[in-house]
Design goal:
homotetramer; 439 residues; alpha/beta; Aminopeptidase; Alpha-Beta Plaits; 2 domains; 8-stranded mixed beta sheet; 4-stranded antiparallel beta sheet; 13 helices; 36% helix
Chain lengths: 439, 439, 439, 439
């Protein structure tokens, strides 16, 4: 308990710094794969704190990146990051969107490796600008058009940096190895796979992830055993047909609009799976060139989900076949591109239990839940699945936070006090694991 | 005009015989490919009149028969035909449904070959049984269950036999060759192709066909230039999936019912053709095994049509692709079987004009039309197309007839006087052609 | 334990009688609402055993009957029942298919009312006829065409009669009231509602139901807490359009075939429900009058299911709207008829626990399971829901039985020894409840 | 022939002026309802030539305008027109897009009223910018972004002004009344109805319209009897549903995307019409808010066509019902807005014949066609239908023109010599009609 008390005191001292950091990041939101400024400041802070910092191709497997913006967007984002104070050395290493960071500190040759994962990207939302909205009122609302931290990742990144600093200061008292993972592109579940496939967690024994809010909507709460991560896959589907004058020669066209419409209906009719949750959504469909022209092109953005990775696989297989058949139905070409994905996952029971014990031990929470149904997707699941597959343990927790509005809403804001809770429980749990306290 | 007068007088003398013959055939209706009794009496009469009679595999190309009933049905029909007086020798030759007949008489080595085509099959209709219905009242209504001459083919066959007799008697006065074609299975446009592909009209210079009624609903009328035969194809489509309990394991089924439903909708959405009439119809769809079972099989009966053979071909090609795609959509097997077809056709203008002249010359008609839009399908078009393709001339005419009800209606009956009109115009036209009167 | 021992001994003595009775019923299978002979022999036996027997309109609410066969079928079934030995007095009372029976015996004015429910109807299956199949080999296979006891209801009814006899003999030792319910038309979940709506279980404190086999495929097993009954609704949907010639005037038709196809696809696309299992199935679809006629009529047999009655209600509401919209889409009329339904249900935990205790106490089972996921529908759920709604307790158990083939298979047969197990546990449990032993 | 010679000489003299005027208009293209500058210069020229000029609400019935751009677009267009030299007085009168002009000159109280109609609007096309393209090479290509005269309306307007000038100069020699109609928004067939419903042609005896090119692709040709205008209607269809998280609560959404997809498929399945050409096209479909959100909104741009106004009415009625049914299918709201329309039309035979005579008489054409199948839609048909309905005569002709590329192509250009041909035949025909030469 001595160490925990120290950690709690350190976290309390950091309070102003946490707020300052979070607000700086909040004002400079960067969507997935363009977190050049955010990752740059993370890399600077971690280097300064004595961590071995890897980024660019050292942290990210390029071929496994999903849903990467086009070159123009990436370049504009790099330019803006530099204008907003990013370190050019890091930005150059991250060119092409390789904005992930792995920071490692070895406390002792023996001992477990404990990893903590934080996400850095913002949402494609225009932040509301009025006096009722605290970030606006207090002057830290988004400076970047059509980008906003509306999911709390600004807070997650801030928490990660605070824990980095605490562990740096506690270095003499710790054992094993800590790995801090700062992941890009969690929105759209695009980033984790590229880090997992780079081998970033192949040597990890304990894997921890956390999120503010969601089903824990009051500061002071914690859910230790998040369940029901839905495995998911995201696809962009492009149909290409042949235009024709709809009055004069309709039979010479190849109707991509109808192919997409037909696909949409039949995708939603995929048979339900008897072994668990299955989902399909054609979220957007844009097709056609003009009112009097046979629709010659179409783009659908779709996703599948499953209560397990196997059920999601069933949905994907069905969807792929249906999409091809719909193209054949109207004799048009089709291309599908995978732009995101997450695994199904469950906490390792032993680790969830240990987190519960730690939460009780440090005595700061007023509401400690065990099971909490997630009911959505998070690509932290990829890290968890990988670590569990190698015999390690993994857990994902929710940290209660009073919210101004729902996640992804332009009015979103969270109680900054929640950051302290998160720093404390994650740092205490990780420290305990490093020291073998859980055995 | 001498010959025409003779023909008219002969036809007038035959009146009681025409009625007797027609009523006998009317009482013994036989659906397509089962015209064993009808064809048998035709063959007997033609043989007696001195024609060379070919039937069975001499008249029909077996592999080109479409929509043939199953063996049980064929055998039952053969048995009934024998019981109703068919000649066993002919019936044996026609075994398997090869009920077509070609009767040839050569008048002189040189000179043109003129063919006349008559259809013999009945409809799948149960004839009404009440005093208002003349065939019932006068005792010649159908003796065969679920079969009725509701389209006038009983009259067509009768007319053909009368013309045979006239030409036999006029033998010394004629030149060239006459071919009388008695075709099975016109309903469902199934029979003509098998005779055409047997080469039955490869040597024909002039081809004549005729129908009672349709758009000529009054006795005494004639339409000499029937236009707008729709080319058509008929398909049976069998989808085969995999059953599964719809509550316990829906994902293990392969849904043939939905494949058929999907096919039906998308078939009807085939793009209209800018160059003429196009049609598609899914006429029947039966699918599934039980309420709580994923539909594991489906049968669709469909047809395409086109204002020309090319447009029908476009519809067929589209339909084939859509059907395959619908099967792929639901991962089920599919088989399509062609069960009928007719070509698009138009009368040869010169021949239509000659018929008009003959109609005026013989002076029996009170209403002589030229153009008449057919708007439906008739497989006489196959004979016409074949003859025209070889440089011959072809025409199809309508013979006016007062009707008791529409074609294919269980109350159908036609004015028997129309048979005389038909015998006269067809025999006079054919005789004129044989003698080169049209040049 | 004294009473339990007595019951077990009585059941053992009945063994030959159980087999004889079951085989007689097996040889005379009667589908739902036509159980005239079965119900007649049940009524005779119960009367003889001293029960107050109610049938016809005293047991069944006519207006709540679902999926009743047509009058011709009912009359043929009555006739056959009489020929096969049914008591004409009962058959007359049951005319119209009112074949349900309630048998009551009052042991003491005070004390609980305990109901046991047995189902009597057979399946629409043709029993296999070969030496491998015991019922055939031993001479008791189905005498009735296209009907077979392929789900074990012959055994259920037999068990019910045995328990009736036991309770009749134990009359002096029991308290409260026992109600034996013999339900028609469980297949298609059609019969229970009409008995529930007649008020048959409004006064019941404890409700017991049982089934052989299903997920308990070995004799000697028992599952005490069957879960996950799916609520379900069954509908017949009739679309009525207007026929038209598909070539000559397609625009004058109203296409009921396409309305049904459109409904089928969109029904399967009803959004999944996040709170539990949802199901939809268009099991059969038959539409159209002929290949060349715009499809003028269609019949779909569909079902919805839900993990709870509320989810099934959601599916029903969606389905109703979609069906109406599909009719509007093609400007055709539509009628939906509810032909079956079952509620969602769960065992009352206290009662499941008491059954478990009894099962252990009597010591005859070699495999006592608690939870068992049903994953299908059973209209015993209506009785259970009604009793629970009035504050009573309800439980449905599975009795293990070696099976020759799956339920509803033409090779189905079950180990007749299972009947003894069922008599013993149900009678012991009911007796215990009557005597307040569970408190 | 004296008058015709005069007209031809005048037209020849105007050649440089025609080119100058056309190129000025070509450089300043204005899409439908925003022809502020074009209409302003037309109004100025006509006023100067002595016509009574009506515009704004005097020429256009506001409530009958279809497909009007939003207020922002209109205001930007007005501003640009003023910057590009439009007369502020006219622009103010035309505010809101009321850019139609009626110019009247009365030659004598008695005598017929002859109307000529010209269209002024440009296409939503970006003109190609390279040396191969004459307008670019010679410095008169479009100055306005995303707007181009790619259909020849710049030429039509120029022709109209030239005829105005000729008639003004010939005033003493003419009788009756001439009405020159300069119509906005022909593209999308949006403008004519608002002028017809304003009564602009209620008093017209002869109505003339013309178009360059289309099926007459060589300068020197003319088609006097254009047939087969397709009646058409254009609709925007807005579906509004309810968004929901596609993973967490799909059942709470109302899926407008699927409603639109369902509508699209079923619209294309509207039964073909046996009496003539029918068409339907869902040209564009854009739906949904995000990949993981139930599609909450959708916009479809559709059109129907018919070989006659009645067939188009059939298609519209079917389409309206289907759209409403698709909305009901997914329980979403729907609004349809008519944004364009044209009638079916045929030339009055007598007038077509008179034009043919005039064309032969003036002897300038090297190819005079009678019948020419239009196969598309033009809202000049509204004027024609209205005039014919009042007992007047109407004709629409094609003036041959060598084309650089097809209509609506960014490379479009036409042989400016065609303008002279058009001026001559229209002016000579109109003059002849005014003087009663056609009787």
């Amino acid at each position: 308990m001595r160490l925990e008390k120290k950690i709690i005191a350190m976290a309390d001292d950091m309070r102003p710094e946490l707020v300052r950091r979070r607000r700086d990041i909040h004002a400079h939101p960067e969507p997935g794969w363009t977190e050049f400024r955010t990752a740059s400041l993370v890399a600077d802070a971690l280097t300064q704190a004595g961590y071995l910092v890897q980024t660019g191709e050292d942290a990210i497997k390029k071929s496994a990146m999903m849903g990467v913006p086009d070159a123009t967007t990436l370049q504009a984002a790099q330019k803006r990051a530099l204008e907003q104070g990013a370190n050019p050395i890091w930005v150059e290493k991250m060119a092409g969107g390789l904005t992930g960071i792995i920071a490692t500190m070895v406390f002792s040759e023996h001992g477990p490796t404990v990893a903590l994962r934080f996400d850095m990207d913002s949402n494609d939302v225009s932040e509301v600008q009025n006096e009722q909205h605290r970030p606006y009122r207090e002057g830290f609302s988004s400076l970047n058009a059509n980008a906003m931290h509306a999911c709390g990742h600004d807070g997650h990144t801030t928490v990660g940096l605070a824990i980095a600093q605490i562990f740096s200061q506690l270095k003499p008292e710790l054992q094993g190895t800590v790995k801090l993972i700062f992941q890009p592109a969690e929105e759209g579940v695009r980033g984790a796979r590229a880090m997992v496939e780079n081998g970033d967690v192949d040597d990890v024994d304990y894997m921890l992830g956390a999120h503010f809010g969601l089903k824990m909507k009051q500061t002071g709460g914690i859910a230790c055993n998040v369940k029901g991560f839905l495995a998911t896959s995201k696809y962009d589907v492009h149909f290409t047909g042949v235009p024709a004058h709809a009055g004069a020669a309709p039979e010479t066209g190849k109707n991509a609009l109808l192919a997409a419409a037909c696909a949409a209906l039949n995708l939603h009719a995929i048979a339900r799976h008897s072994e668990g949750v299955s989902r399909i959504n054609v979220g957007t469909l844009c097709a056609g060139s003009g009112r009097n022209i046979i629709g010659d092109k179409a783009l659908m953005k779709i996703e599948t989900r499953g209560g397990t990775s196997a059920i999601n696989q069933y949905m994907e297989t069905e969807a792929q076949r249906i999409i091809k058949a719909a193209a054949q139905m109207y004799d048009v070409a089709v291309e599908t591109e995978k732009v995101g994905g997450a695994a199904g996952a469950n906490n390792t029971p032993a680790l969830a239990k240990y987190i519960h014990q730690q939460a009780e031990k440090i005595g700061i929470f007023n509401n400690i839940l065990d099971d909490c149904d997630f009911g959505a997707s998070e690509d932290c699941s990829y890290f968890m699945e990988q670590v569990q597959a190698h015999g390690g343990q993994a857990a994902y927790i929710l940290i209660g936070a009073d919210l101004a509005a729902g996640h992804h809403d332009s009015h979103f804001d969270f109680d900054e006090a929640a950051m302290g809770y998160s720093v404390k429980i994650l740092a205490c749990t990780a420290a305990g694991l490093l020291l073998g306290d859980n055995k």
